[in-house]
Write a structure and sequence with these properties.
about 160 residues, alpha+beta, 2 domains, about 20% strand, elongated
Length: about 160
């Protein structure tokens, strides 16, 4: 298995897609019930193959990831050949940017000495989707990129006004 098995809840949500997957494997509902009863290891393998296919599709479409904790915001833009990172760290332990108040503080105090912003670009390894999946497994979530674009635009504005 390349990624990880979908959870029971995820599999339940994808029940129609799983039925279609089984149909492409020419496995009928009766045969599936028989597999689960008499050859559970084969049934498990089918679930693993389906899970990998789902993850591959999701990872191929993912354009942005976010990993936000109380004092750190890591925003990723997933390009074709590399990923770009905007990392924002708040040094004040009393600020929690996962709360509305903490996030508002961050927006108003981006130039504060307690706020550090870093950017980086990194080429993918041999398997870009494996790199993306590692980030998801470490707590990142797939997003539409509003935060990345917001901070990216702010940094571009800063460059223009500072004459960079």
């Amino acid at each position: 298995m390349k990624y990880r098995r979908l959870t029971k809840e995820q599999l339940d949500e994808m029940h129609p897609e799983f039925i279609n997957f089984l149909a492409t494997q020419t496995i009928t509902a009766k045969e599936w019930d028989d597999l689960k009863t008499n050859q559970p290891e084969v049934a498990e393998q089918e679930i693993d193959v389906f899970s990998d296919l789902v993850w591959e599709g999701v990872l191929n479409k993912a354009e942005f990831l976010e990993h936000i904790s109380a004092r750190t915001m890591n925003l990723f833009s997933l390009g074709e050949k590399e990923m770009e990172l905007i990392s924002i760290m708040v040094g004040d332990e009393l600020i929690d940017i996962t709360t509305p108040e903490g996030y508002q503080w961050l927006q108003k105090n981006l130039l504060d000495d307690e706020v550090k912003i870093f950017t980086a670009k990194k080429a993918y390894g041999e398997d870009p989707n494996a790199d993306k999946f590692k980030l998801i497994e470490s707590g990142a979530i797939i997003t539409k990129g509003q935060l990345f674009n917001y901070f990216d635009d702010l940094m571009e504005l800063g460059k223009e006004t500072n004459g960079f």
